[in-house]
UniProtKB/TrEMBL annotation:
<dbReference type="GO" id="GO:0006635">
    <property type="term" value="P:fatty acid beta-oxidation"/>
</dbReference>
<dbReference type="InterPro" id="IPR029045">
    <property type="entry name" value="ClpP/crotonase-like_dom_sf"/>
</dbReference>
<dbReference type="InterPro" id="IPR014748">
    <property type="entry name" value="Enoyl-CoA_hydra_C"/>
</dbReference>
<dbReference type="Pfam" id="PF00378">
    <property type="entry name" value="ECH_1"/>
</dbReference>
<dbReference type="InterPro" id="IPR018376">
    <property type="entry name" value="Enoyl-CoA_hyd/isom_CS"/>
</dbReference>
<keyword id="KW-0456">Lyase</keyword>
<dbReference type="InterPro" id="IPR001753">
    <property type="entry name" value="Enoyl-CoA_hydra/iso"/>
</dbReference>
<dbReference type="GO" id="GO:0005739">
    <property type="term" value="C:mitochondrion"/>
</dbReference>
<protein>
    <submittedName>
        <fullName>ECHD2 protein</fullName>
    </submittedName>
</protein>
<dbReference type="GO" id="GO:0004300">
    <property type="term" value="F:enoyl-CoA hydratase activity"/>
</dbReference>
<comment type="similarity">
    <text>Belongs to the enoyl-CoA hydratase/isomerase family.</text>
</comment>
């Protein structure tokens, strides 16, 4: 996905009705020794980092339970859409654990430190409406009979992104992600570097021409 230039948006959905991702298999985990657990969690953390680093926008379509590592997967995505019936939570403390695949870092960046601490300390599960109210998800939709309401809304959101200039979208994502980790002055410098890379693109020229000619732009990603 990272190197396929035809990919413009990635949507994560589950093929299992009622479950987005239920997290780690604790029965499997119980068979591991301490070293194996550490190695497993490190690999999982690296996977989430790879997902977060994808250059194109990513959307998690949460139609069912997203618990533990399942919510960490959704947090690694840029955008999240949840059905009203979805259940979400970093439930690790209820099993004698703590989030180990990015949850302690990505949740507070998403909902704020206070709410993140409350959710992690209590291991509480919340539904789609509660997640939307606290800003954990971008959109909440009523679940449909097919059980894929969040996926359908995620596709609609993806289709809003598709007409936009691909390279500009990628640079926008890069500027936001890098800028959020530094002070605002450094962030401005990062934005400037990303903008400078966008200036010589053919898509920028096409966008200007389309505006002058009062027609929809035809972006090619170059």
């Amino acid at each position: 996905l990272r190197f396929d230039e035809k990919v413009r948006v990635v949507v994560f959905k589950s093929e299992v009705k009622g479950v987005f991702c239920a997290g780690a298999d604790l029965k499997e985990r119980a068979k591991m020794d301490d070293a194996e657990v550490g190695h497993f969690v490190k690999r999982l953390r690296n996977l989430m980092d790879e997902i977060a680093a994808l250059p194109v926008p990513t959307i998690a379509a949460i139609d069912g339970h997203a618990l533990g590592g399942g919510l960490e997967l959704a947090l690694a995505c840029d955008l999240r859409v949840a059905a009203s019936s979805a259940k979400m939570g970093l439930i690790e403390t209820t099993r004698g654990l703590l989030p180990g695949a990015g949850g302690t870092q990505r949740l507070p960046r998403c909902v704020g430190i206070g709410l993140a601490k409350e959710l992690i300390f209590t291991g509480r599960q919340i539904d789609g409406q509660q997640a939307f109210s606290m800003g954990l998800v971008n959109h909440m939709v009523p679940q449909n009979n097919e059980g894929d309401a969040a996926y359908q809304r995620a596709l609609t959101l993806a289709k809003e992104i598709l007409p936009q200039a691909p390279f500009a979208v990628k640079m926008g994502k890069l500027a936001i992600n890098r800028g959020m980790e530094v002070d605002i002055a450094s962030g401005m410098a990062i934005e400037g570097m990303c903008y400078a890379q966008n200036i010589p693109t053919r898509d920028r020229q096409e966008g200007m021409a389309a505006f002058r000619e009062k027609r929809p732009p035809q972006f090619i990603g170059k």
